[in-house]
Write a structure and sequence with these properties.
Elements (H helix, E strand, L loop, with lengths): L1 H22 L1 H15 L4 H5 L8 H7 L5 H12 L13 E5 L8 E5 L1 H22 L9 E4 L7 E4 L2 E4 L1 H7 L3 H4 L2 E2 L2 H4 L4 H12 L4 E6 L1 H15 L4 H4 L5 E4 L8 H7 L6 E8 L2 E5 L8 E3 L5 E7 L21 E8 L6 E11 L4 E7 L3 E2 L6 E2 H15 L2 E10 L8 E10 L4 H15 L1 H7 L9 E5 L3 H8 L17 H10 L11
Parallel strand pairs: 1-5, 3-6, 3-7, 7-8, 8-9, 19-20
Antiparallel strand pairs: 1-2, 4-5, 9-10, 10-11, 11-15, 12-13, 13-14, 14-15, 16-17, 18-19
Length: 512
């Protein structure tokens, strides 16, 4: 296998570099920080914030406030208008359109040549390097790689600027080593209509020899089920007998693991999680069957971590890598070779180990429920759903939850809208396990549930199959990085969905 042999040589070289940043993480991040500041010193942002005077990380923190997208927008708008040397010295012509949830407002994240090559593409190569390092007999490069990306086409917005889903930008610029094995064709991969695209991908790949898949678990399931329908097969191994790896990210895999095991019943099947976003490629599961990710420290990203107790303050404090504590939730703050400076990504992580630094994605800074002091995060919710499914032989396709606020006559509660792939025989039993698991995972939730004084038992409502799909479709949010918001501290999503239940429509399949 020529390509496998070539990749074997690359793996040895790259694993040496990965070992270096695992052994010397603080030093690698320190050198990277210095390089970023020096590179951007003469950009508009660098001049505005006196980068030439910055000598230490503390200088940097004093000179540059933490920003979210809205407070960064004035600089990004300059770039989108065609100005250059604004945030990063190299020319910027690509912008990743990102929302992350069902929100209508879009973000346009600049994607530089360095960010593509030294971060996003490097992440893809490293995933395979780490996989082959553990599985020397792997044969991923003996067959095709099915990549299920975003549904947005590339749209020009000025003479030299383009925007689209990050996955579409990546596919447009793929290096030869990646493009040669990828399927479907670029024209199909970049189709804008998600439902038509799923149908075309299913029909054009169901007779291919697929060895690896990459995509978001929820959308990949839609594709796999359609392929089984077309082939009349019982499981995916009957269609692709050589499939051995699913590279996934975007949402937690916990609620979907059991369903994938049923769709792909094979002990030789492997699953590797990644943590990548429009803003950067952050982590890779470097140990099969582990539940954490290696923080990738040489991708042109300098990290700071904001304790969630600081979130929302006017001048929040952050800690550097060497000062993080295990088990604590942090919001990620990044400075990158894509021109983002002290940028608040919006994700929260917790560290599972130091030296090497490994993390788990615990949720979003905006996606939580804390209406009563319970501080419920997405990681709690995903794990509780998984345990409840395990105990009641259920499978969940999607879910969202929000508070039911107190009134003069009633205490509060959490309301869960769940679309089951396989419904439990006893919904009350599912609810009880969900509640008990949340209590075991979250002491604040347990305290608020005591004696039903503040929080009552969760109110779980089973939605008809296809509800979330139609909801996302109606918002033009199918596919790619779009995802159902798991938790919300307000009732905006839950009330929208409950309103739809009052006006039921016929469930349509993807191929309809």
């Amino acid at each position: 296998m020529p390509l496998n042999s070539v990749f074997g040589w690359f793996i040895k070289k790259r694993m040496h570099q990965i070992d270096l940043f695992m052994k010397y993480p603080v030093e690698v991040q320190g050198e990277l920080f210095r390089n970023l500041i020096d590179e951007a010193a003469l950009t508009r942002f660098g001049v505005d914030h006196k980068f030439s005077s910055i000598k230490t990380v503390e200088d940097f923190k004093k000179a540059v406030p933490i920003r979210n997208y809205e407070s960064f927008k004035e600089y990004i708008d300059l770039l989108r208008d065609g100005h250059q040397n604004v945030l990063w010295p190299s020319k910027v012509k690509w912008f990743a359109k990102s929302s992350g949830t069902t929100d209508s407002k879009s973000k346009f994240i600049p994607v530089t040549k360095e960010a593509l090559e030294e971060c996003h593409y490097k992440g893809g190569k490293d995933l395979l390097a780490l996989y082959y390092n553990q599985k020397p007999d792997a044969k991923v490069y003996s067959g095709k790689h099915l990549v299920l990306g975003g549904s947005s086409k590339i749209n020009p917005f000025n003479e030299e600027g383009y925007t689209g889903d990050l996955s579409a930008i990546i596919i447009r610029n793929l290096p030869v080593w990646a493009e040669i094995m990828r399927t479907p064709s670029r024209d199909i991969a970049l189709m804008e209509n998600w439902e038509e695209k799923i149908e075309m991908i299913a029909r054009t790949t169901m007779n291919e020899d697929i060895y690896m898949m990459a995509g978001v678990p929820s959308w990949t399931m839609v594709l796999l089920k359609r392929i089984l329908e077309l082939k009349g097969a019982e499981n995916i191994k009957e269609v692709w007998p050589n499939l051995e790896l699913f590279w996934h990210g975007g949402v937690s895999f916990k609620p979907y693991r059991d369903q994938f095991s049923r769709l792909i019943p094979s002990l030789s099947m492997n699953y590797v999680e990644t943590y990548n976003a429009s803003e950067g490629f952050f982590g890779i599961q470097d140990r099969l069957n582990a539940d954490d990710l290696l923080l990738m420290l040489d991708y042109g990203i300098f990290y700071e971590f904001m304790p969630m107790s600081e979130y929302g303050k006017d001048h929040p404090k952050t800690v550097s890598l060497q000062d993080v504590e295990l088990g604590q939730n942090y919001a990620i703050v990044i400075s990158t070779n894509g021109g983002l400076w002290r940028y608040l990504v919006g994700d929260t992580v917790r560290f599972t180990s130091k030296f090497p630094f490994r993390i788990q994605v615990s949720g979003r800074t905006r996606h939580y429920i804390n209406a009563f002091g319970e501080e419920l995060i997405v990681d709690n919710a995903d794990e509780a759903i998984r345990i409840a499914c395990l105990h009641t032989d259920a499978a969940v396709a999607d879910y969202t939850a929000a508070p039911v606020f107190m009134t003069e006559k009633s205490t509060g509660a959490h309301q869960w809208l769940i679309e089951f792939e396989r419904a439990p025989q006893d919904l009350s039993a599912f609810t009880q396990v969900l509640d008990d698991t949340l209590k075991s995972l979250n002491s604040d939730y347990e305290a608020k549930r005591a004696f039903n004084f503040i929080l009552q038992l969760p109110d779980v409502i089973a939605l008809p199959q296809g509800t979330f799909y139609r909801w996302m479709r109606d918002k033009n949010k199918l596919g790619g990085q779009h995802k159902v918001p798991r938790l919300c501290n307000e009732r905006v999503y839950v009330d929208e969905l409950l309103e739809r239940l009052k006006h039921p429509v016929e469930i349509q399949t993807v191929s309809a």
